[in-house]
Amino acid sequence: MPTLALRSQRVVTPEGERAATIIIENGRISAILPPEADVPGATLLDVGTRAVLPGVIDPHVHINEPGRTDWEGFDTATRAALAGGLTSLVDMPLNSAPVTTSVANLEIKRAATRGQLHCNVGFWGGVVPGNADEIEPLIAAGVLGFKAFLTHSGIDDFPNATEEDLRRVMPILARHKLPLLVHCELSEDDDAWKQNDHRSYSNYLASRPKAWEDEAIAMMIRLCEETGCWVHIVHLSSANSIAPIAAARAKGLPLTVETGQHYLYFNAEDIQDGQTQFKCAPPIREKANNDQLWAALEAGIIDFVATDHSPAPPDLKQLASGDFTTAWGGIASLQFALPVLWTAARRRGASLSDVVKWLSTNPAKLAGQSGKKGQIAPGFDADLIVLDPEQTFEVTEELILHKHKVSPYICQELAGVIELTFLRGEQVFQRPDSLRLNHGEFLTR
């Protein structure tokens, strides 16, 4: 591969945003030179005032293949990723069939990627009752860490783990220094809310109170301290848990946290009855709560933002009926991870450096990629994107490369247009729709 010199007036490096020429050789960044540097023999690409960022890393994606490829699949998910500037994804262990709770099932999933791995993809293993003996074999097979639910996952073949199940697994993960990702809701069996207005969003919101999250997070902080296992709380939505999380981190516990774009962009007050495209668990809460999530993200208490892309066909989302009691819970948003967060962040005075930290640098740490991805620095993989941060666009069904044209972001005007995406120095996307396929690799630690 010939040497590429990528020049911009706005290169977002760990030291901040500056004019620079990035030298890319053999798929990696070999040097960052002044913008006027002459690089004999290199192919020069000068993108002017458009910004160059490290590729987005999303460690919370439900690709659903094999078994539920009619919901999404590797081909559509990784095409959408490239168009959205995402260069690495980590696939959740559920919603596919079989679920990733054994080495045999992991190999079935890996085989399903053949011919349709368009960006880098890694895999989380699953923790379910009775699979403790599978944990170390899955580690040896290359999973990046493990995911557990404390409430029903929505999929019967991925049952929730009990405290006893976690106590068996967490010491193993502590020895291997791998994270346990946890869906934190300790739910109570009460379907009384389903007797009320099925189309009411406020009714659905009340059915999953903050207390469910807060009690689950308190339990995980306690187990984290007892076992020394790295605990990662996924999609935090209850601001009530911010103070306990901050206190645990101040004690030095190995605890990290993510929230989702939808909790930062939308507010419950703005969701109309029957708009089941907004249904997710935990739910999108009120503006006062979500403002506190923003403050925690800005303060570093929340480490990063991930989509929890969880798509489903329109009939499962109950778009026609607007029935929140039966609609599948999940937000389809993978392709718009960066512009959604940037649109909301810049309103609050955040910078592109902040967005890089929240979408690339810190997610790379969770996925075990921090030595080679998530930064523009010498020695790092040249997974890069060229972004026009000032240009806006409207999300339409025609733009969406996910399998189904279902998303709460349709008709939203977003800032930040991805012009180019590079994988290891090779251009794999050019706006509007030019894709180079099958250049993804498996992520391992």
UniProtKB/TrEMBL annotation:
> Is Metal-binding among this UniProt entry's keywords?
yes
Q: Which GO terms describe its cellular component?
A: cytoplasm
Please state every residue range assigned to the domain named Amidohydrolase-related.
52-426
UniProt pathway annotation? Nitrogen metabolism; (S)-allantoin degradation; allantoate from (S)-allantoin: step 1/1
EC number per UniProt: 3.5.2.5
Query: What superkingdom does the record give?
Result: Bacteria
Q: Which cofactor does it need?
A: Zn(2+)
The Gene Ontology biological process terms listed for this entry are: allantoin catabolic process; purine nucleobase catabolic process
What keywords would UniProt list here? Hydrolase, Metal-binding, Zinc
- GO molecular-function term, one example from the UniProt record: cobalt ion binding
According to its UniProt entry, the function of this protein is described as: Catalyzes the reversible cyclization of carbamoyl aspartate to dihydroorotate.
NCBIfam families the record matches: allantoinase
Name the family.
Belongs to the metallo-dependent hydrolases superfamily. DHOase family. Class I DHOase subfamily. Belongs to the metallo-dependent hydrolases superfamily. Allantoinase family.
Query: Subunit structure of this entry?
Result: Homotetramer.
Record-given protein name: allantoinase
* Gene designation per UniProt: allB
